[in-house]
Design goal:
- This protein has 405 residues and is mainly alpha-helical.
- Among the domains are: 111 residues, no CATH class; 135 residues, no CATH class.
- The protein contains 21 helices and no strands.
- Helix 8 runs antiparallel to helix 19.
C-alpha cells in the first residue's frame, strides 16, 4: 500500500518537476555557458530539454484527454505561418526557425500554465532552484567585473533569466516575510538594479503592484487607506535616498547602464526602438485592413535581408500592440488586443475573488512575461509570455482534479 501511495505521489509530481525545470532552463544553461564557455554541446542540451518537454506535453495531453486544445493551437499557428510564407517573399527561413521555438517552448509553456493547478507541489519544485539562482547570480557578477560581458548585452539576458524566480521570492516575502527571505530578496533586487536591465525592473514594479492590489482587496477601507499611505511614504523615502543607493551600487558595478539611466532620469530612453515604432505604425496606417503575417515585422525592420536567428532576436517590433496590429492588420489587431485585455481583467478579478495566495503569487510573477512584450521580446518566441496566456485563460475554468496529473 505504501508503495502504491509513493508511486501515485511520484506520478503527480512529475509534471511539476518538468514545469519547474522548463521555467529555469535558460538560467541553468546560461550558468553553464559562463562556467564552461559557449560550447555547442550546451545548445544541444538546451534544445534537448525543450524537445523532451514538448514530447512529454504531447504524452500528457493524450493520456489526460487534453489534446484538443493543443491541436487547435498548433493548427492555428500552422495556418498563420503558412499565410505569412505565402504573403512574404524571403521569410520562410525565419518562420521555420521561429516555429521550432514556438512549438517546443511557447505551446509547452501555455499547456503547463493552463492545465497544472498551482499548489504546494509547484512551490516545492521551484524551491529546488533557489541555490542555482544565487549561484548563477554570484558567478555572473564575479565574471562580469572582469569585463568579459562589458559589450555583449548579456546583462539583459541575465536579468530576464532570473526574473520569474526573483518575483516568486519577492511576492512570497510580501505574503509571509522572514528575515532570511527578506535578505535574499534585497540581494536579488540589488543585483538586478546593479547588473541587470531596466526592463525587468519595470516588470517587477508592475507585478508587485498587482500583488499588492490583490492583498488590499480583502482589507477594510481604513486599512486600505493606512497601507496606501504607508506605500506612498515608503516610495517617497526611497526616492529621497535614491542617489545614495545608486552610488553604493555603482561601487559594485561602475559600468551599469541601468544605474546610469536611473541616476540621470533617463529610464524612458527608447534606445532606438522609436525608429521601429514609427516605421511599423506608418505601415499600419497605410491600410488598417491589410494583414502582413506573423514574423513579417522582421522582414521590414531588417530591410529585407533575413538571416534567421539574428532577425528573431534583433529585428522585431519591441511592442506587443504594434507587433500584433502590423502582423494581423490594424482592425483585426485591435480586436485581438481588446479580447486579450478583457481576458486579463476577468482573470485578475477571478484571482482576487478566489483569494488563493499561491495562485496570486504565480499569476503576478508570470505576468512579467506580458509586461516584457511592451518594450522587449516578441510573443512568438517568448515562452514567459505564454505562461501568462496559459494562466489567464485557465482562470475560472472548472477542472476535474483527477484529470490533471
Amino acid at each position: 500500500m505504501k508503495l502504491l501511495i509513493k508511486n501515485k505521489r511520484l506520478k503527480e509530481e512529475i509534471p511539476y518537476e518538468l514545469f519547474a525545470l522548463f521555467i529555469n532552463t535558460v538560467m541553468i544553461i546560461d550558468l553553464l555557458r559562463i562556467i564552461v564557455g559557449n560550447v555547442s554541446a550546451l545548445e544541444i542540451v538546451r534544445n534537448g530539454i525543450y524537445v523532451f518537454t514538448a514530447f512529454y506535453v504531447i504524452y500528457h495531453a493524450i493520456s489526460h484527454k487534453h489534446l484538443s486544445v493543443l491541436m487547435a493551437s498548433g493548427m492555428g499557428y500552422a495556418f498563420l505561418a503558412a499565410f505569412s510564407v505565402l504573403r512574404n517573399d524571403g521569410i520562410t527561413e525565419v518562420v521555420l526557425s521561429g516555429s521550432m521555438i514556438f512549438l517546443t517552448r511557447c505551446l509547452a509553456a501555455f499547456y503547463f500554465a493552463y492545465y497544472l493547478p498551482i499548489n504546494e507541489c509547484f512551490f516545492k519544485k521551484m524551491k529546488k532552484y533557489y541555490v542555482i539562482l544565487f549561484l548563477y547570480c554570484f558567478v555572473y557578477i564575479t565574471t562580469h567585473t572582469s569585463g568579459i560581458y562589458a559589450t555583449d548585452g548579456s546583462y539583459m539576458t541575465f536579468s530576464y533569466n532570473i526574473l520569474i524566480m526573483t518575483l516568486v521570492c519577492l511576492l512570497n516575502c510580501v505574503e509571509k516575510p522572514t528575515p532570511l527571505g527578506t535578505l535574499g530578496v534585497v540581494v536579488l533586487l540589488g543585483i538586478i538594479v546593479a547588473y541587470g536591465a531596466r526592463g525587468p525592473l519595470i516588470c517587477i514594479a508592475i507585478s508587485l503592484l498587482l500583488f499588492l492590489w490583490y492583498k488590499f482587496a480583502s482589507f477594510s477601507v481604513w486599512k486600505k487607506i493606512i497601507l496606501f499611505c504607508f506605500c506612498i511614504g515608503g516610495g517617497s523615502g526611497l526616492f529621497l535616498v535614491r542617489n545614495t543607493i545608486i552610488e553604493i551600487l555603482l561601487k559594485f558595478n561602475p559600468s551599469s547602464r541601468t544605474l546610469y539611466l536611473l541616476k540621470n532620469f533617463k529610464l524612458d530612453n527608447l534606445s532606438g526602438r522609436n525608429t521601429y515604432y514609427d516605421l511599423l505604425s506608418a505601415e499600419i496606417n497605410k491600410n488598417w485592413f491589410l494583414p502582413h503575417g506573423i514574423y513579417s515585422d522582421r522582414l521590414i525592420l531588417s530591410g529585407g535581408g533575413m538571416s534567421s536567428n539574428v532577425d528573431l532576436s534583433q529585428y522585431y517590433a519591441h511592442n506587443l500592440p504594434i507587433e500584433v496590429m502590423y502582423q494581423f492588420g490594424g482592425f483585426i489587431g485591435v480586436l485581438v488586443l481588446i479580447f486579450l485585455l478583457v481576458k486579463i481583467i476577468k482573470s485578475y478579478i477571478i484571482v482576487i475573488k478566489q483569494n488563493d495566495h499561491k495562485l496570486a503569487i504565480v499569476y503576478c510573477a508570470f505576468f512579467s512575461g506580458i509586461t516584457t512584450l511592451f518594450f522587449s521580446s516578441s510573443y512568438l518566441i517568448n515562452e514567459r509570455a505564454w505562461l501568462v496566456f496559459g494562466i489567464v485563460f485557465s482562470a475560472g475554468k472548472v477542472v476535474n482534479q483527477k484529470n490533471i496529473v
